[in-house]
Every structure is written in structure tokens, then in C-alpha cells.
Write a structure and sequence with these properties.
Largest sheet: 2 strands, antiparallel
Helix content: over 70%
Order of helices and strands: EEHHHHHHHHH
Radius of gyration: 19 Å
Number of helices: 9
Length: 160
């Protein structure tokens, strides 16, 4: 480990995961993957590695690997954002039923998660399930989204 000095002049420990995240932020995915594999061997219970692997695999379009890492992470840490990210990966992998299931899990953990409501509205509409689409679009516009977004969704609801 090394230390960095913060803007407030305090010393802060820089962890391996911090260095890996810097590689990811700089789109150096090969180096980040290599370091994550090493870190997983050294610290098999460090679940941040699963999250970072999932992020990289999603970015690279390897949705099955992203899904596997999100699912592994969810065995140890359940949160609305993790279910949302897993749903995004399923959706990108064209597994719509699993995407819907995970967006629903997201909203059950955090009913005020606007993006999950919007995604559910879109997916239900694509499946021809207009009633559920309306419900989730209405939920979405009631969650403090920008006025311009509300107007777009209201116009869409008028066409459903």
C-alpha cells in the first residue's frame, strides 16, 4: 500500500482496489483484469473484486461474465443498485424476463429508484403489456424526475 495526500492535507491509504479503479477509469481494462485476478487470489473474500470485474465485463460486452460476477456479489451483498446493474446486464444479453425480474427486485428494495421504474415501463411496453408499462411509467414520473422527462413520459402514456 502507499499513501496519498488529500486536498485537506491528510494522508490517505491507497488500496489495491483504488489502483485497479484508476486503471478502469482510464480504460486500461487488461491491466485491471490482471490485477483483479491477483487480488482475488490474495483476498478471496474481497467482494469489491466481483463488482469491478462485473463493471469491466459489462463495458467489454461480455455480459455473461458480468452477470456471473454480479450474481456472485449478490450472494454476499444485496442492494437495489446491484440488482439494477444485474438487470442491465441481463437486458444487454437479451434475457428480458431475467432483466424484468431483477428490476423488480431493485424496486422492492428501493421503491424510489426511478431508473428501474422507467426500465420496467420500457420492457413491459416492448412485450405488449400496456397495463404494467403504464403503472411503471406513472411511478417513474412521480419520483422527482426532471420536468422535461415527465412531459416526454406523459406524452408516451397518452399514446399507450
Amino acid at each position: 500500500m502507499s499513501k496519498e495526500i488529500t486536498e485537506q492535507g491528510e494522508a490517505r491509504e491507497i488500496t489495491k482496489i483504488d489502483l485497479i479503479r484508476e486503471l478502469i477509469d482510464n480504460c486500461k481494462f487488461d491491466g485491471a483484469l490482471e490485477q483483479l485476478e491477483i487480488l482475488q487470489e490474495e483476498e478471496p473474500d474481497n467482494f469489491e473484486t466481483y463488482y469491478e470485474l462485473a463493471r469491466i465485463y459489462f463495458e467489454l460486452g461480455d455480459y455473461e461474465s458480468a452477470i456471473a460476477n454480479y450474481e456472485q456479489l449478490l450472494e454476499h451483498h444485496q442492494s437495489a443498485i446491484m440488482y439494477y446493474n444485474l438487470a442491465l446486464a441481463y437486458e444487454a444479453n437479451d434475457e428480458i424476463d431475467k432483466a424484468i425480474s431483477n428490476y423488480l427486485k431493485c424496486t422492492s428494495l428501493n421503491e424510489k429508484f426511478p431508473f428501474a421504474h422507467k426500465k420496467l415501463g420500457v420492457l413491459f411496453l416492448a412485450r405488449g403489456d400496456r397495463q404494467d408499462a403504464k403503472e411503471y411509467f406513472e411511478n417513474y414520473i412521480n419520483l422527482g424526475v426532471p420536468e422535461s422527462e415527465k412531459e416526454e413520459i406523459k406524452a408516451l402514456l397518452g399514446r399507450i
